């Protein structure tokens, strides 16, 4: 039996399908109140996908107060969750088939995500993934906001000493190596070539993971 720890956004879930709309909701309101000019920085968010939400808003709204960043964050969370629950998102092709094969072979499957708990729950519930995932872990489950620390906690909880972290960004690969696991890089929407070079193996589709 092997342990597989999956990232969610950009690995199993096509976040692009709901990201732009949710961001547009936030920045439309900022424009309406005269606090933002110009286009919604979707491309910038896509560049930094994989960092924690506080880091997102510090990057997208660097001149805003902490309170205003938090207000934007709350609106974004509500909007993206509503989009997921309405079925506007998509899993990457082969997600369910891969998870089915892993479970049928007796392997353990976990999620380690920078997403927040209710968002992850919405994805798992909306797309019927409960039967395939042993436990879902959010970055908000730990204080540090660090992906490596989150994976460390998963390894400690489940006595994991070997296995895989499957993800698309450098934070996933570092989390694997820091904890003595192998990193499988997914060359999908948010992936960057220089980061994928750190992974032990790179796949172009989920069917190649297992």
Automatic annotation (TrEMBL):
* Xref: Pfam families: HAD_2
Under SUPFAM superfamilies, the record lists: HAD-like
- Kindly state one GO CC term assigned in the UniProt record: cytosol
Q: Which domain of life is it from?
A: Bacteria
Task: Please identify the protein, giving its name as recorded.
Answer: Nucleosidase
Q: Which GO terms describe its biological process?
A: DNA repair
Give a GO molecular function annotation for the protein.
phosphoglycolate phosphatase activity
**Source lineage:** Bacteria, Bacillati, Bacillota, Bacilli, Bacillales
Q: Show the PANTHER family listed in the entry.
A: PHOSPHOGLYCOLATE PHOSPHATASE
